[in-house]
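Lecture notes, part 5. Sequence design as translation. It can be helpful to think of inverse folding as translation between two languages: the language of shapes and the language of residues. The source text, in structure tokens, appears below.
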């Protein structure tokens, strides 16, 4: 009889151990959930870092626009195509790359 009781006790403890392990892994606060939260945290941290870099770049641009006349002049020339009196602007067109195939038009089609 004592052998049967000890076997039952070992079986119950084994089942409890397996149940605890399953809970530790698959519970909402288990290992898989913790891993998922950690990955989400890393992704959010990357987004925060990118946004901070963008903010830094924008702050530098604002500072240049407020205090740097050379930067203001360059931006005006590039963005608004402004020129000084007597200047001439030459715009060059880059030909299409030779590696790209030309569009084929069938004889009945016109572009």
């Amino acid at each position: 009889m004592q052998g049967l009781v000890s076997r039952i006790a070992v079986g119950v403890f084994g089942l409890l151990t397996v149940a605890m392990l399953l809970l530790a892994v698959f519970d909402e606060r288990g290992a898989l959930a913790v891993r998922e939260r950690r990955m989400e945290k890393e992704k959010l941290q990357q987004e925060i870092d990118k946004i901070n870099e963008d903010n830094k770049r924008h702050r530098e641009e604002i500072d240049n626009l407020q205090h740097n006349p050379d930067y203001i002049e360059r931006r005006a020339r590039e963005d608004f195509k402004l020129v000084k009196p007597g200047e001439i602007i030459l715009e060059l067109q880059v030909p299409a790359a030779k590696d790209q195939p030309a569009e084929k038009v069938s004889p009945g089609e016109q572009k």
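The translated text above is only one of many valid answers, since several sequences can fold into similar shapes. The radius of gyration is 35 Å.
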